[in-house]
C-alpha cells in the first residue's frame, strides 16, 4: 500500500473533489483518480460515493480515513527521526485573527525568526470562520483565533489566553449610553464581519437591554475601522491590547463597557490528523509563553 495513495485519499476528503485535491497536491486530476482506484483495489472496498459534484465517504471509507491518518502521522514521525539537527526547516503556514497578527504577536514573530531562520513563516489574517475552514481543508498548519467552528474529532484546540475588550470612540463625539436599558445609539457602530465574536457578544448584550443601534457600518480592516473612528464617524469594539496605544495618546476615548468583567478566550488549534513539525511546535510554545504571560 503506497503512502502517496493514503495522502491523496486524505486530501480528497479534506478538499471535497478530485480537482481541488489535485491542485492542493500538485498532481493532475488523473493522478488523483489513479491513486484512489489503487487504494480501493488494495483495500477491496469503495471509499467514496458521488453526490452531485462532491465525493462523500462511504461508511467503510470513513473507517479507512481514520486509520490512514494514523499511518500518515506515524510515517511523518518516522521520517523526522533522522532530521533532528536540521528539523527547523520547511514552511509553516499560520492563519490568525487580524487583531492578533497586527497587535499581539510582534515578539512571537521576532523570536520565531531568530530561532528558526530556515523556516519560511507564512502568516495570513483571516476571519474566525476562515481559520476553521482552512485548518479543515489543510491549507494552513496552525490557527490562532477567538472562536473555532470545530468538532472534537477534527481539531486539537487549546486556550492560550484571555482578553478583555473595550468600546472606543473619538474625543468630542456624543457617546452612546449602553448602561441604561431602552436607549437608542445614534452613533454608528463600525465593525467587520457579521461573525465577529465581539460584535455578536455586543449585539446580544445590547439586545437583552433593549438598546437599539441606529446604524452599523461594515469594514474588513481594523486599520480602516480605526481611521473612521478617529474621524468621529462611529464607535467600535476591539480587544483592549489593540487600542492601548490610542487610548494612552488620547486618540480614542473609552465608552463604558456593557460587558462588565467578561473576558474572551484566544484559541490555538491544529488538525488532529496532521503531525506537528518541530517548527510548528516551536511557534506554539512561543505563542503560549507570550499570550499567557500577557
TrEMBL record:
Domain (HTH lysR-type): residue spans on this chain: 1-58
Top-level taxon of the source organism: Bacteria
Keywords: DNA-binding, Transcription, Transcription regulation
Any one GO MF annotation of this record: DNA-binding transcription factor activity
A Pfam family recorded for this sequence: LysR_substrate
Keyword Repeat included in the entry's annotation: no
InterPro entries: LysR_HTH_N, LysR_subst-bd, WH-like_DNA-bd_sf, WH_DNA-bd_sf
The keyword Transcription regulation appears for this protein: yes
Extent of the signal sequence: none
Family label: Belongs to the LysR transcriptional regulatory family.
Protein name per UniProt: LysR family transcriptional regulator
Source taxonomy: Bacteria, Bacillati, Actinomycetota, Coriobacteriia, Eggerthellales
Amino acid at each position: 500500500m503506497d503512502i502517496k495513495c493514503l495522502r491523496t485519499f486524505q486530501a480528497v476528503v479534506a478538499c471535497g473533489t478530485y480537482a481541488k485535491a489535485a491542485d492542493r497536491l500538485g498532481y493532475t486530476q488523473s493522478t488523483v483518480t489513479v491513486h484512489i482506484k489503487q487504494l480501493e483495489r488494495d483495500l477491496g472496498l469503495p471509499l467514496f460515493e458521488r453526490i452531485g459534484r462532491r465525493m462523500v465517504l462511504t461508511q467503510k471509507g470513513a473507517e479507512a480515513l481514520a486509520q490512514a491518518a494514523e499511518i500518515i502521522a506515524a510515517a511523518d514521525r518516522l521520517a523526522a527521526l533522522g532530521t533532528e539537527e536540521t528539523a527547523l526547516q520547511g514552511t509553516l503556514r499560520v492563519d490568525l485573527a487580524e487583531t492578533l497578527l497586527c497587535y499581539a504577536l510582534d515578539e512571537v514573530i521576532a523570536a520565531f525568526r531568530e530561532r528558526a531562520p530556515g523556516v519560511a513563516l507564512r502568516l495570513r489574517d483571516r476571519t474566525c470562520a476562515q481559520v476553521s475552514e482552512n485548518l479543515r481543508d489543510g491549507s494552513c498548519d496552525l490557527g490562532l483565533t477567538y472562536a473555532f467552528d470545530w468538532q472534537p474529532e477534527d481539531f486539537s484546540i487549546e486556550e492560550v489566553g484571555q482578553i478583555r475588550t473595550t468600546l472606543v470612540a473619538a474625543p468630542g463625539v456624543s457617546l452612546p449610553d449602553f448602561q441604561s436599558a431602552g436607549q437608542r445609539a445614534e452613533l454608528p457602530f463600525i465593525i467587520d464581519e457579521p461573525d465577529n465574536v465581539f460584535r455578536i457578544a455586543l449585539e446580544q448584550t445590547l439586545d437583552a437591554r433593549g438598546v437599539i443601534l441606529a446604524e452599523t457600518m461594515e469594514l474588513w480592516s481594523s486599520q480602516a475601522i480605526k481611521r473612521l473612528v478617529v474621524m468621529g464617524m462611529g464607535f467600535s469594539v476591539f480587544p483592549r491590547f489593540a487600542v492601548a496605544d490610542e487610548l494612552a495618546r488620547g486618540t480614542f476615548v473609552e465608552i463604558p463597557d456593557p460587558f462588565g468583567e467578561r473576558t474572551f478566550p484566544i484559541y490555538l488549534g491544529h488538525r488532529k490528523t496532521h503531525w506537528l513539525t518541530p517548527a510548528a511546535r516551536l511557534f506554539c510554545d512561543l505563542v503560549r509563553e507570550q499570550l499567557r504571560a500577557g
